[in-house]
Write a structure and sequence with these properties.
- This protein is about 40% helix and about 20% strand.
- It has about 425 residues and is α/β, with parallel strands linked by helices.
- It has 3 domains: about 1-30; about 50-155 and about 310-375, Periplasmic binding protein-like II (D-Maltodextrin-Binding Protein, domain 2, 3-Layer(aba) Sandwich), CATH 3.40.190; about 155-305, Periplasmic binding protein-like II (D-Maltodextrin-Binding Protein, domain 2), CATH 3.40.190.
- The strands form 2 sheets. Strands 1, 2, 3, 4, 5, 6, 7, 8, 9 and 12 form a 10-stranded mixed β-sheet that branches. A two-stranded antiparallel ribbon has the order 10-11.
- Strand 10 and strand 11 form a beta hairpin.
Length: about 425
Amino acid sequence: MNIHIIKILSILITTIIFIYLLYPKINEGFITWYLPFYNKGTIELTKGTPKYLTSKLEYDLLEYEYIDKINFYLLKKTSAEKNEYYKFILSNIVKSLRVEKLITHYESYYPKLLKQINDKKNNFGIISSQMLVDKMSSDINLVQYINIVCVSNYRYIFFIINKASQISSLLEMNNKRINIGKKDTDDYLFGTDIVNNLKINNTLSIKPSYFDTEEAFKKLIKNEIDGMFFTDLYPSDTLDKYIINDIEKKLILIPITQINQSVFKQRNIFVEPVGLDLNALPPNYLPIKVKKLENTKFRPIIESFRYPDFIVCNQFTDPKISFGVVNSFVSNIDIINRTEFFTKNGYNYLAFPGLANSMFLPTHIGAKIFYNKITISSTKPDTMCKYYVGKSKCNDEKIEGAKIIMGLDGDED
């Protein structure tokens, strides 16, 4: 046989063997490059990530593999036994994620909850955006391995007074006994900030106390304090419980007004102003009367603020699991938005891009891949493309629309 033919055959055989040995990685990279949802506009997705991860992740999910166990951490005050909403969310994750066992744990305060997630792979939890931001500045070790998966719900700020206090606005707290809340709670963070905010342009001095929520409500009903700051879902199981038992109608909600909103938003980057419809409260809430505040028939809409709770996980969590969690959550989003909890308060409605809005906090790679899958395709990458969900091209109009939705200035990149 001609020596040249032998050389050519040898080269071909060697090449075939080489390709065969490396086939899985080459194949996955090849598939990923041509996946229809692969969005080159989201450059951050592939930074430090193998090019074949997206396709491998999708492939693994299509294999219908079961996840043995997920640990999910909640605060005791928002435990699934007390809040039907969280119970509903977790049960749907179990059904659609194909997880064999989801174990729910309850921690008494946020630092302990964060530590459980920060220290252990494949641990998840629900935590407020306000607490995450606070710990990033005050105790970075608690959040260094915390990643965002998605927004699970919104929480709201309330200021509640005893009618005997004769408080009808925040500025009338002067020289009053006000419960700020227990340290390492959202009540404390917002209560402290609102009081300090009011002091910017006003002379204000309060007599603060730092009881937890349950103790504060008991003292408020007994008129041992005049008012209290409180944060929760709305409708709120806790608030409803005390109002239903408030036969003498001592408890009255006061609007969160008279503060410097621009300063408040700068210091609390996730807050948004809302109007809370008091029709969501138990029927026995009316009539109420404090000074000029009088409602005997119609339930007003009072001003307040909302901020998101996040489903979070450990940075080293298997991307397949976080992908599955956000996928199961989004798959049920229409059902979630039709529940009584959401119909009673329109501000509870969950939708894109707010659902994926982690702002400067890191999003877990598995969740990023999911968002990338449903983000609009782009041949002209722009950092705003990832905030607009859909399958159309990312044009200038879409980018401007995304900026408006995200509340960004028109000249921001």
